[in-house]
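Troubleshooting log. The previous structure file for this entry was overwritten by mistake, so regenerating from the original sequence record. Sequence copied from the archived sheet and checked twice against the printout by T.R.
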Amino acid sequence: MFVLQNKAETSCSLLFSFQRLSGIVELMLTRSSRPAGEARLRYLDADIEVLAPGDYVVCAVTGRKIPVQALRYWSVDRQEAYWDADAASSRMVPAKD
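Regenerated output below.
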């Protein structure tokens, strides 16, 4: 058991250990287990299957990066992701001349 001699030593020790701990916690919160980059996914009827992990997929219409957590629109037949409903519908309905 560790006993501290005085109050100043106690507050100093607590401050030091808190700063050390907060640095470790900050590192743990900012580090991701997924590799950064484009994910490869298989688009299923109501779900997706991760073939290669990543942070985002690219919209087939706009070219914008879609965070995997925000992905809501895709085509099972075309195996493509879409930024939003407008991009998905523009891909599904042929343009009128």
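The chain is about 35% helix and 20% strand. Archived copy saved in two places this time.
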